[in-house]
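Title: Prediction job returns without error message
Component: structure pipeline
Severity: low
Priority: P3
Assignee: unassigned

Description:
Job completed but the reporter wants confirmation the result is attached to the right record. Sequence as submitted:
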Amino acid sequence: GSDVEFWTAHFLRNDITMVSLSGLKDESGLDELESDEESGEIHPLPWICAPGSLCDWSSITELKIEKVGLTSAPEGWEGCLSLTNLYLNDNRLTGLPNSLSQAPVLENLVLDCNPLVDWPDVINDMQTLCVLSIKKCKIGNLGNNVLLSSSASLRMLHLDGNPLKMLPYCLGELKSLQSLSIEDTLLHEGSLPPELVQRPLNLIKYLGQLHGVVGQGNASVILDGLGLQDVPMTVVTMTQLTSLDLRNNAITCLPIRMGFMTNLEILLLDGCEELHTPPQHLWKQGSKATVEFLQRMVSANETKGLWLQSMQLTSLPPDLHILNGVRVMDLSNNDISEIPAELGAWDAFQGLEELDVSHNPRLSILPRSLANIWHLRILRATHCDIRRLPPQIGALQSLVELHLDSNVKLSQPPVEIVSRGIGAIRVWCNQLCRVECGVEVLDASNLRLRKFNTNEVLKGST
């Protein structure tokens, strides 16, 4: 009784502004915890001086109840008319009372190191909250309406040490947020871009853009200058988008799946200096050319035909190898100067039956690896600048059409061989392969072999 009278008398005073019960433990019987050593149970004492008790809390601005093993918090917070700072960290709280949202001026709430598994919904209704720290708890999901009431006031949010794998898009509505700490979480295992997890404020902007699409039905996403290294697959799957701004990022390759974004009309890529697929000269032509390129790429996996003709390409996209089972590839009417040497080694083209590289005026050589494409039946390479046909092509037994017209500088095979057709070209190529091994030299006029020593062959071939 005397203890109650003592504490009540002190808290009925209206000039107290700060109360700390941190680690409270003395011999007066007012220990916040009394432990039963035999059972191991912990029994919180009555809240003699808690909100809602006989005490006057209207003048209290700061309350610290830390490290006392608190398992539940009382109701009655609406009477805390001046409370701005509340510390309940390092306790055993598993939830918060609903009346906490009625503390009219609460700005700083610290809940670190409590066994909170679920996000306390009452926090979502706190309209004056500026700083929220809820580190090292057990929260794995924040919910879909988190902190929306605090969107105009919250400046700092600390979520470190929670097993979070995803953040809700609505966090992007926290327009006043200046600091977000998310260290030691599991976000790197989720679908968020890892480079944004390292830049929390950019992450908030990213989430805000996604929330605009999912929550508000926007058809435009602006990801300008966020430091993205890849186009997030979450964005790629938003096929309803009509406008996508990826300017000033570190993106190196646009995923082929973007070809499924059939409603996309505006695709901004300025400032993406590391972007190589599509080729820079192509995406700098504008949105229409880039989107068309992506759509042709994605259709190749369905139709087995890759149609990249007349796209002003100067080189082949470096990620063609990720396609599946291409049978026809048309690269004609471009300005390609080189076919990748490894083309014939890519699994995507092992079933290639028809290849057209005609009307590429700077293309001067075909790769030897074409000889690995055993199913190749038709090869068109007219109106190019080809000087020499790789003799390994003679090994392609399936090749029935080889078109080399209007390659005015072609010297191997000679014109008289080319004029005789694919059979003569194949024989010439096979013989030349043996020549290059230093065994024989070819008499191109009558396809008869003359024996030479190896040194003479090498000298003559140069």
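Comment from assignee: result matches the submitted record. The two ends are 112 Å apart (CA to CA).
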